[in-house]
Amino acid sequence: MRKAIAKALTWRVIGTAEIFAISFWTTGHIATAGNTAGLVAITSVVMYVVHELVWNWHEGRTELIGLSRIRLTPGVQVNNDVFIEPGNSPIPTPPCAS
């Protein structure tokens, strides 16, 4: 969690400077550019952390139910890993439209 927050903050410094420059260039007003950059900085950090948490949760869920070990290359066996044979996928696929 700390790493995700640190990465979000350092990336936002760059992004905030970019948003400020673009806003100032398009509007010509420092206050508008500052308000826009500040708002985007806050919302971007929050959304980045949420994205990291959801991504980590998803990885944990797929590992929990065994999907992290599934290989979708049919008919291949490497280092005792069993790869899924065609037609035996545990993941349902929709029928092909004609």
Topology (elements, then pairings):
Blueprint: H1 2-27, H2 30-64, E1 77-78, E2 81-82
Helix pairs in contact: 1-2
Order of helices and strands: HHEE
Tell me the strand percentage band.
under 5%
Compute the gyration radius: what is it? 22 Å
Task: Determine the fraction of residues in helical runs and give it as a percent range.
Answer: 55-70%
Low-confidence stretches: none
Overall form:
elongated
- Class of secondary structure makeup: mainly alpha
Number of distinct beta strands: 2
Adjacency order of strands in the biggest sheet: 1-2
N→C terminal distance = 47 Å
What's the number of helices?
2
Mean pLDDT: 74
Biggest sheet, open or closed, and with what strands and sense?
A: 2 strands, antiparallel
Textual characterization of the structure:
The chain has 98 residues and is mainly alpha-helical. The protein is 62% helix and 4% strand. It has helices spanning 2-27, 30-64; strands at 77-78, 81-82. α1 (2-27) packs antiparallel against α2. It is elongated and about 50 Å long. The mean pLDDT is 74.
Outline of this structure?
Helices cover 62% and strands 4% of the residues. By secondary structure, the chain is mostly helical.
Index terms:
62% helix; 2 helices; two-stranded antiparallel ribbon; 98 residues; 2 strands
